[in-house]
Amino acid sequence: MPGRDYILSTVAMLQEEHLDVRTITLGLDLFDCADRRIGTLCDLVRKKIHAAAGDLVRACDRVSRSYGIPIVNKRLAISPASCLGAGHDAKGLLRLARALDEVAAEIGVDFVGGFSAMVQKGMTASDRALIGALPEVLATTSRVCASVNAASSRAGINMDALLLLGETILEIARRTADRDGFGCCKLCVFANIPEDNPFMAGAYKGTGEPETVVNVGVSGPGVVKRAVERLRESGMPVTLADVAEEIKNTSFRVTRTGELIGRAVAREVGAEFGIVDLSLAPTPEIGDSVGEVLQAMGIARIGGPGSTAALAMLTDAVKKGGTFASSSVGGMSGAFIPVSEDSALAAAATEGTLTLEKLEAMTAVCSVGLDMIALPGDISAETIAAIAADELAIGMVNRKTTAVRLIPVPGKQAGERAVFGGLFGESPILRAAGASAGDFVRLGGRIPAPLQSLVN
Description:
Order of helices and strands: HEHHEHHEHEEHEEHHEHHEHHEHEEEHE
Helix content: 40-55%
Number of helices: 15
Oligomer: single chain
Structural class: alpha/beta
Distance between the termini: 44 Å
Number of strands: 14
Largest sheet: 12 strands, mixed
Shape: globular
């Protein structure tokens, strides 16, 4: 049984340090709803979601009250829509997205992920239809999130898909120009997308997953920050190894909490328990920031020398503590650095110490990639595709998940401010420096997979 100090420290995490279950995400297989008649497909999707997930929000609330642990978001992840809607055109997939948006509102979930396509090696007609529907879908729905896997360590990078997505991202931004291009906040472009990710916008229900499965994302940047601060304020000699050990121990307790809650919710809704995602996911609230953890570790200016090494140490320690606490670790698991969603990162970007180039370097050691990056509204589709290709190449070569959420802000330039609101936050618009890579991007085709893809 846990000792008194263990229990008291966990109580302090909850009451003072922003520990919460960031999301409970129910993955739901919808392939048995497929039909050549779009009306029938949408009706079957509605019925199955109501049957399988209709009690999800109430179940989360019951478990939250029982354990006294907040569950911030309740979400749904479905089978990839490009496969579910195969044979339908962009208009049909738009109808599916609107049906998903409506049923998500009816059952009370915050977001539904899985309006997704896997195009790392090529695009089907259904994949192209889904990408073609994205501007209207993300401009006219409030809960639907989309993702496209355009690269993998086994397949390489689909540059044709990235150029098409660059054009699509610009169109999404134009359709939501009155909200600083907010629609782009709901689209992630991935390399090596995980099938069990509980976080949006990249969550979807993979084909290797159970019929219904609960995946949990526990986030505690504030908890980790205070643990590091207490250690450094203790008056004892402290080394970086000591800091890593403290982060590891804290991650252990956070992961235990997440698995406890996830398994309880899974029992309540009659689903299998899937994984705990260990990712430190910040919010715009002061004290709930990955950037502040780096500062507590001694990085005076985020983006300055030492930032990448500190982030690597943080990510590794979080993973080590979490994997010791649970045999069901998955998703992305590490540390997110979404600029607009993290107050300290946004401040560093405003000061100019955190640039697009430095962020790219830091993504080589964190969990995801260039996340929630506001860009000038006059950026070209080719430049968006090239930025995405650079980031996905890091994931492809290193056999890890990387992704981009790039938001061109219509009518605004580098140095001005993009405001998205709520958990999406706000940040300065970053400069995309350097000459155009249009000639490279327009060559098209596929960047071949690296040699390490030959692992059989």
